[in-house]
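Phosphoglycerate mutase: structure, please.
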Amino acid sequence: MLATEVYLVRHGETMFNQLNKVQGWCDSPLTVKGIDDLKRTANALAQVHFDNMYSSDLKRAIDTVHLMKDANIVSEIGKIKKLPEFREVFFGSFEGDDIDQTWDKIAQAAGIGHETNVQKIINQIGIEEFREATKKADPRHLAENKEELDERMIRAIRNLHELTKNEKRVLVVSHGDFIKTLAIKYWNNSDGHHDIQFPNNGSVTRGILHDDGRFEIVDYNKDAEDL
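Here you go.
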């Protein structure tokens, strides 16, 4: 067994990103801008050798991983394995809703009144309470709270560890809020509670999956020009 370097790539901009809609497990196609941004990332990684590439099972991530695969000139990647555990955070009944109206409902559920700026909400109540308030505000209470999301992240890393035991470097396409939450948990620049910058579309976050299953993030939210 050996340590595995993991390149976590956020999918490109989608139609729902552009339309300011909540997008977790629901899906929408990549935009022209999203594809153009991804091509820059793909070109920056074109000569990085990967033993394998993986993807969340949502279409925007699958489309993204194929752009990475097609541009890479030094790797021989077979069929892409889809990993449902690396899906975006689930927002329950809010999926597809207007994002500002959703944040306002979450802010009210958290007891801080009207607020549509998600960063201000999280700064006030913290990321953990934000997850709880999201579940509380969801009329069907389906949205993932901190405990559910944390269990899924641990499962995602455990499964990836099993899959990559004989792989030195892999690429995994995932999603903004999921990658950010991984970084809050596994990046030593984060104290595990306070918020960090949301990763850009097409950005790369790099982690090390140690042979004993420990995971640590060593680089966060790097754009194509920084790679």
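Notes: The radius of gyration is 17 Å.
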